[in-house]
Amino acid sequence: MVDPYRTVLFDVSDHVATVTLNRPDRMNAFDQTMVDEFRELWHRVRQDDDIHVVVLRAAGDRAFCTGVDVGKGLDKAENVWSREDPGRGLGPKQNKVWKPVVAAVHGLVAGGAFYWLNESDIIISADDAMFFDPHVSYGMTSALEPIGLARRIPLGEALRWALIGLDERMSAERAREIGLVSELVPYPGLWDRADKLARIIAAKPPVAIQGTVKAIWETLDLDRETAQAVGFDYTVIGNPIGMSQVSRETFVKPEWRLR
Predict the structure, then answer these.
(1) For the segment 52-85, what is each residue's pLDDT rounded down to a tens digit?
(2) What percent of the chain is predicted at pLDDT more than 90?
(3) Which residue from 114, 197, 198, 245 has the highest number of Cβ atoms inside 10 Å of its Cβ?
(4) Are the CB atoms for 142 and 78 separated by under 8 Å?
(5) CATH class, range 2-202
């Protein structure tokens, strides 16, 4: 199944939706059209039970995404109180998508690209990736992206990334060290590796997978005791359904690998 979006490529195969940012001539910077298309795309992913996992990647060899397309900008309401963060359209979790998102990044990964990365479940990176935030160098407050990033990596690393601006780029190796990405692969094998991870997840009972994603994300900002109480509710709701999808008699344990 392939759809003619203007700014992305969308394909579904064997329960994996592959979404490819497709503005390589603009280093996959997002414009209003892309924001709108992602809002519709996430709604589609959420509603389509044939989709179990999403792979998010980008066309071209120069960049995953360099943030907003400053040449085109975004639509803004005249009333400042009616203006909306573009992340509400771009981010999977802000669109209530509890199907896992595996992000595969390469090249330049800048600023607004973190609207996606901050809400991805697994991030793998090509060894050529470089991460940076240009906002403050251009006299702009960097707020939304580092706020989300600070929930994934040590606070000091998020602050350094935001405050140094264009004077420094974080290497793929450093991103791996601080836990931003979980795996580094040579660029030619990036897409294949992301697809393989997605298919491993997609083969598992979808109720169990989606319940796990929802439980973790929706309790991130709760204190431990409250999070545990809420998490127990998810097991009460989801486990009877998920376990009914697995036959104990025919279940075969997979060959595991050491990471």
Answers:
(1) 999 999 999 999 999 999 888 777 878 888 888 8
(2) 81
(3) 114
(4) no
(5) alpha beta
Strands 130-132 and 170-171: antiparallel
Q: Is 141 helix (H, G, I), strand (E, B) or coil?
A: coil
Which residue from 140, 18, 144 is spatially nearest to 87, judged by alpha carbons? 144
Question: CB–CB of 198/55 below 8 Å?
Answer: yes
Give the domain ranges of the chain.
2-202, 204-259
Q: What is the structure's pLDDT at 81?
A: 84
To the nearest 10°, the Cα dihedral for 161, 166, 171, 172?
80
Query: Distance of CA 248 to CAs 119, 241, 252, Å?
Result: 34, 14, 9
The whole-chain average pLDDT of the chain stands at 93
Interatomic CA distance for residues 166 and 145, integer angstroms: 15
pTM comes to 0.92
What CA dihedral angle connects 242, 247, 248 and 253, to 10 degrees?
-90
pLDDT in tens, 211-253: 999 999 999 999 999 999 999 998 988 887 666 666 666 778 8
Q: Which helix (H) or strand (E) holds 74?
A: none
Q: What DSSP designation does 186 have?
A: -
